[in-house]
Specification:
Helix content: over 70%
Structural class: mainly alpha
Number of helices: 12
Radius of gyration: 19 Å
Oligomer: single chain
Order of helices and strands: HHHHHHHHHHHH
Largest sheet: none
Distance between the termini: 13 Å
Mean pLDDT: 80
């Protein structure tokens, strides 16, 4: 089921950069929507379930029978692990902390997996070591750490417990970035894998809710929540379809830089929709983060190794 060893990564071009930008903005837009649902009274797990299920069903309905994939043990495992690391764990945690620290700061958590993803990829021989890329990613992560550091001009120390919980988001995403590329099923399309990951994530969240006795929270009788979930499901279908195209066309490290788009976009949406405000420390971190993006993506003549294309 793994065709990693036979193909090389493509050098990301303008198309990949625009796809990265578009997917990052779509994912960032999900955060203020989730905060709106939490403010009405929806629980994070219920929201994560309906988001994953809705997105998966929309994509499956769009593809219909023309792109079905035969399910076997290896694919079931791939969908389960992908759904756990990219959907169930990070989304449930992000939706839980967004009402405590705001959409903007929650978005910064998505920028942290980049350096960890690159380190794992280099260690596994999936990418070559590049000092320029490592320095650039380091700048980006440093910018996020700066943003997350308690400061009179930054965030409140009262938010630290929620931020520490939120750090599980980038850890889960980094593991998932590597796994999905290194175990990409032979012959599978990005659309097929996006459906499997979303529905796999929904199943795992539902199982967790059964264990916790929270299934009753899935019942929704508020028209406002259904409207929010409808928009969220459409964004999820669009975002994760593009997400898997990025996974297929580029490297895990390039994909991990989605967080460098989600962070400033999420902060902007937090300002626009909720009037969130940030001190000089936060904006200084954003500048450092964007500097890292530029450094990490300067043209390189180094050879790439392998790909999941």
């Amino acid at each position: 089921m793994n065709n990693q060893s036979s193909i090389r990564y493509r050098q990301p071009g303008i198309r990949s950069a625009f796809l990265l930008l578009g997917v990052g903005v779509v994912i960032a837009l999900m955060l203020p929507l989730s905060r709106a649902a939490m403010d009405i009274g929806m629980t994070p797990l219920a929201y994560a379930f309906w988001q994953a299920l809705g997105g998966g069903v929309i994509l499956a309905a769009w593809l219909r029978r023309r792109s079905l994939i035969r399910l076997d043990g290896a694919l079931t495992r791939y969908f389960g692990i992908s759904g756990l690391t990219a959907i169930a764990v990070p989304n449930a945690l992000a939706f839980a902390v967004v009402s405590q620290i705001g959409a903007g700061l929650t978005a910064t958590l998505y920028a942290l997996p980049s350096l960890a993803t690159y380190a794992i990829a280099v260690t596994m021989g999936m990418e070559s070591l590049s000092a320029k890329k490592a320095i650039g990613l380091g700048f980006g992560v440093a910018g996020c750490v700066w943003i997350l550091s308690p400061s009179p001009a930054g965030i409140s120390p009262d938010s630290l417990p929620w931020l520490l919980l939120g750090l599980l988001v980038p850890l889960s995403l980094a593991i998932g970035n590597i796994y999905r590329t290194s175990h990409w099923p032979t012959g599978a399309t990005p659309e097929q894998l996006a459906i499997g990951m979303l529905l796999g994530g929904a199943v795992l969240i539902f199982m967790a809710m059964l264990i916790l006795g929270d299934v009753r929270t899935l019942v929704i009788d508020d028209a406002r929540l259904w409207a929010i979930l409808g928009v969220q499901s459409i964004l999820t279908a669009i975002g994760y379809r593009g997400f898997f195209h990025l996974q297929q066309q580029t490297s895990p490290t390039f994909l991990s830089q989605l967080g460098f788009v989600i962070t400033p976009a999420g902060m902007l949406f937090g300002i626009v929709f909720y009037g969130e405000s940030y001190g000089w420390a936060v904006w200084g971190g954003v500048v450092l983060l964007l500097t890292g993006v530029v450094l990490a993506n300067l043209p390189s003549h180094e050879r790439k190794t392998c790909s999941a294309d």
